[in-house]
Design brief:
Layout (H helix, E strand, L loop, with lengths): L9 H10 L1 H14 L8 H13 L4 H18 L7 H16 L16 E6 L6 H14 L4 E5 L5 H14 L3 E2 L7 H14 L4 E5 L7 H15 L9 E7 L4 H13 L4 E5 L9 H9 L3 E5 L7 E3 L2 H9 L1
Parallel strand pairs: 1-4, 1-5, 2-3, 2-4, 5-6, 6-7
Antiparallel strand pairs: 7-8
């Protein structure tokens, strides 16, 4: 029986359950070994639980926070049975996610008072950035919004071509220039075009290079500054895309990008192909940036709004 009232549709919930299957199976397999032969939560069980959480890519800092909270409950309640551990873990993880992910959104929406609403997408190459943009464009279009894409990753011809394929696939306009063009110029042209077309949402792709943080910072700052000549408070959202299957490497990427620019939201992709779904919990907690979207499959509808209740329910149910 779910602790939470059903929020997602049955189909979306089944997709989420399936997408988190590998993470859940691995996590609970480790957890059952950790408590084997034990009836109460003691220091040994907590040590094993700590190991389970760390090896599930929840991250050391977040793991210690969870362990501290469970220790406090053990100390308060004096006796805690291992059969209660699932429910307690579930409550504590939901509590942690609630501290950062304040929204309980279930639909693809943006603030209507910002038009066009400008999303700048950042992330290293290979994390599923362009695919995420394409799927976002599809979802927003399905929700009745007019979307314009900007191909400002001008350092790779493949990035421009891939975004063009998505634009054609979901039938949205794209602004592009030749490879090697100034990314800020592409962003400027995209916003001018979006304003002229009375578009609701603009999604700007940016180059996925991390090898020189100073250059990255300068480039993103320049793109922002140039966009603001057209839309005063753009971008309204800086979305960092992370590949969930890379585990701890995703933490490192988040660290680098949050130093280079002000990231306001996260999308964690490729959760269906990995047992490292715990990374969502750790990254959300450590960086205090809301996880807005998660990728749980290859299909165009498999990019989902991250809803903490549904996520925890799928993880523990």
């Amino acid at each position: 029986m779910s602790l939470f009232k059903r929020i997602f549709s049955k189909e979306k919930k089944e997709t989420l359950d399936k997408g988190l299957e590998k993470t859940k199976t691995t996590f609970f397999s480790k957890l059952s070994k950790a408590v084997a032969g034990k009836s109460k939560v003691d220091d040994e069980v907590l040590d094993h639980l700590e190991e389970v959480l760390v090896t599930s890519d929840v991250g050391v800092e977040t793991t210690l926070k969870i362990i501290d909270r469970i220790e406090a409950r053990v100390s308060r309640d004096k006796y805690l049975g291992t059969d209660e551990l699932n429910a307690i873990l579930r409550e504590e993880i939901a509590g942690l996610l609630s501290e950062t992910n304040v929204g309980n959104e279930t639909e693809f929406t943006v603030p209507s008072e910002k038009k066009p609403y400008v999303i700048m997408v950042v992330g290293v190459n290979g994390v599923g950035k362009t695919t995420t943009i394409g799927k976002l464009a599809a979802q927003f279009t399905k929700a009745g919004k007019k979307v314009v894409l900007g191909a400002a990753d001008t350092f790779r011809a493949a990035a421009i071509d891939q975004l063009q394929i998505w634009a054609d696939r979901v039938n949205v306009p794209i602004v592009r220039q030749e490879m090697g063009s100034d990314p800020a110029s592409v962003a400027f042209d995209t916003l001018k075009s979006a304003v002229a077309q009375n578009a609701d949402i603009v999604i700007i792709d940016t180059a996925g290079r991390l090898h020189n943080k100073v250059n990255l910072m300068n480039e993103l700052t320049k793109i922002k500054r140039v966009m603001q000549k057209v839309v005063e408070d753009a971008p309204h959202e800086v979305l960092l895309v992370l590949d969930g299957s890379t585990g701890q490497n995703a933490f490192e990427q988040a660290k680098q990008f949050t130093k280079a620019t002000e990231v306001t939201a996260l999308a964690v992709t490729k959760l269906d192909g990995t047992a490292k779904g715990g990374v969502v919990i750790g990254i959300s907690d450590q960086f205090k940036i809301p996880v807005k979207y998660i990728g749980v499959g290859e299909g165009i509808n498999d990019l989902q709004i991250f809803n903490k209740f549904e996520f925890v329910d799928s993880f523990f149910n």
